[in-house]
Model the fold of this input.
Amino acid sequence: MDLALTDDQRMVREAAQSFLADASDSASVRAAMATALGYDEAVWQQIAGELGWCAIAIPEAYGGLGLGPVGLVVLMEQMGHQLLCAPFFSTVCLAANWLAEAGSAAARQRFLPEIAAGRLRATMPVNETANDWIDQRASLRAFRDGAGWRLEGVCARVPDAGDAQWLLLPARIDDEAESSGTGGNGALPRSAVFAVPRDAAGLVVAPLNTWDATRRWFRVELRAVKLEALARVDDEQRSDVGFVGFVRSAALARLYLAAEQLGAAQACLDLSVAYTATRKQFGRTIASFQAVKHRCAEMMVRIEALRSAVYGAAAFASANVSARAADGAANEVDAEGSAHAAPETLALECAMARALADDAAFYCAQEAIQLHGGVGFTWEYDPQLYFKRAQAAHHWFGNGDALRSRIADGIADGIADGLLA
Amino acid sequence: MMDAPTQSADADFRAEVAGWMRAHLVGRFAALKHRGGPGDEEAFPALRKDWERELAAGGWTCVGWPREHGGRALPIAQQVIFHEEYARAGGPGRMGHIGEGLIGPALIRYGSAEQQRRFLPAIVAGREFWAQGYSEPNAGSDLANVQTRCTLGADGRWRVTGQKIWTSLAHESDWIFVLARSEPGSKGNKGLSFLLLPLRQPGISIRPIRQLGGGAEFNEVFFDEAIAEPEHLVGAPGDGWKVAMGLLEAERGVSTLGQQMHFSHELERVVRAARRRGCDGNAQIRQRIAQAWIGLRVMRYNALRMLAGDATTLGREALIYKYYWSNWHRDLGKLAMDVLGPEADVISDDADVRALQQLFFFSRADTIYAGTNEIQLNLIAERGLGMPREARGDVSTSSKSS
Done:
């Protein structure tokens, strides 16, 4: 496995660095935070339109650039560094990722080219466990309603639901015939994922007033939302817990979040090194005190360890994707387990990256506040923005403890053995 | 990504190494599996020297050296594969690693043709073993504070007087390389020379140091007018620091993947112990085992980053590596003892338990030798982050203390 970036990936990184340095500097982030929308629409138009960033990881068959997980990781790292406010994570890392890995053929054809072209914003609820999207706590119920469906229930937290055009919502199928059957692992009820248009009757979207204002969150309530049959976007035969597409898309979502947090942690270190180099006490810069140097060095150790984990897991995931493409299976939903390295192996790799990212992002943000001293406690300086984002993201896709617990399961089951040696 | 023919050649090479190890690490050598190496250097020294000759006969010593010096000139990727498969098979800690990894490459780079002819073939063949003489009682982290001195006699020979410390395997070695002060009154890294001395001579005495874990794989080496032949000065007089630093340069991950394979075996041993003791369901132990596994993945990908990097600059990933692995390893030692519980308090004859006890005690050295944690953090802050360098004691202070 070669962890050197390709020329294409390097170009993505440089383009993202130079664009975001202006479009998402501190003043821009603070301006976006203060708007009702939560992001700058002109910046989003550039990102989704001329820069084509939504297309990076989408397969070429769906109008994407096919740069794979490594390409998107490169981008997410830069976005995290600059605290970009945009519906990018929800549209690309949640919705497009899920559709590409687990969506039905029809759903992929319908939505992916639109997302790749930058014309469509979509979102999904963030899974708050170490499981793969659907668990017993899935809070929406889907009832068969003639040829279609009726959805009821509440999603407590959905990012960017305010102005997304589509919401992809996992729900439990509440159906006598089906609930007596069991899911893929024999224990859970059958589930499905539905594409709900933002203007559906009975869909009530209410903004949440969150401490981290760099992302927008909404409570989504479905009051007897009626949907036609084709609103179901997962493959009906493969929607159960343990299905490859669910495992893979959850793994990749963790990886993309880890990449974003890597960038955020690096920004906290950059801010701290820059600040301590100018702040003088006792007639010298505080950067010259060993107590300060060692704290910064410890941040760098954690950041570089995380960088190795993120880029290693991304290369692992990309190699996995190209193996699928080589088998000519990219356009079809694979039979479970076919053509893939065991999806649980990818799940462990990405859980590893995300568990480290959860720790590193918070650690570096709190160190940045400490190393800035009094001004680190103010609204005016930026460490607080990273601190709030790190804590807000702690729960997404399972926190570090939950992910380590899953990894321990993998070790106990012998799944981790292949990765040990 | 590597192209397909390379990958298939690499796979063949991997199979070749694994096959050779399977065929040769048997019979009398079977006792050496997973033995030796840091913390276990006292195990079977004579048999491990025989094993070096077995390796040499198979052409498996000095695989990265140039052909003209007896190596195989393997590309980096295949050197990595060799170290991985060697460790995967449980290949013993190498008695020849100081010759192969340190002085050999230094002689290839800085040695005279005559020195190369004299010393390199014996290293490749596993006939001569080397010890390293850098550290001194007052030159630990401050490596340049060398007090051992050497003088050039009228007969053209060098006479070395002073003391080295933390010399591993000195009692099992034939030669030692020494950094000594050749310009009287010089300070720090100026005025040092790099000399090669046979260890068995009247002017050298060796005293083992008993470690906190009871073993004694390090030594103090005392020099009292010990003799180095004129032709055994490497580089010019006064070039010692340059040679010494060249020799300590990062290996760029070539053998680190082998080291990680060894770590991975150790973690597996901890997991087995947890199962056996029934604490593998304990939530805290599970968290720590998972954390250790995560660390292994980080080290692997970190080493792959080092290998992918530009070979002329020391990347950020290389800067953090020593600090990362040594602290990871120390944590693993504590986890091993906590998994064993009260059983860990009894000095054990059980090979599995004893190995974990040795891990616990010896890993205390990991964060001290080859640059302490504190020195590592200074290097990371200064070289990695460009922060101000540590102030040095001024000349008047240091001359008072010396």
Notes: Chain B has three domains: 4-95, 130-237, 256-384. Chain B touches chain A through 50 residues (CB under 8 Å). The first helix of chain B runs from residue 4 to 24. Residues 395-402 of chain B have pLDDT under 50 and may be disordered.
